Amino acid sequence: MLISSKSRSAIDKLKKDLSSEFEMKHLGEAKKVLGMKIERDRRGGKVCLTQNGYLQKVLRRFNINGDTKSVSTPLAPHFKLKVIMSPTTIEEHEYMTRMSYTSAFSSLMNAMVYTRPDLSQAVSMISRYMHNPGRDH
Length: 137
Known about the structure:
137 residues; mainly alpha
């Protein structure tokens, strides 16, 4: 269980109440939760969650290496996806069945929900083609 509060006394009271009902062990400050790294800035009074390790693993799984260009916005405004980009031939359909489009989409959705809200426009755009994605999607 992860307990967080601005009030140290509230944390202590909750721990005391829980330990009276359950056997508990204090494991120290959390460093990770749900695969996200917890970074603290005690002076600034900030807590940040990062998914760098998770995102690196996702990039490796989809063979995206350091040679890939990074961009400041996940989806450029001029970039347009269209239904005509969906597969039309049997060969294109077969190629896309070997692609893990759903898995890539799920990975992006996970990152967007937890730590990367800036991905929401891109995730929204590609979700429209989940039923019949093409190479350009």
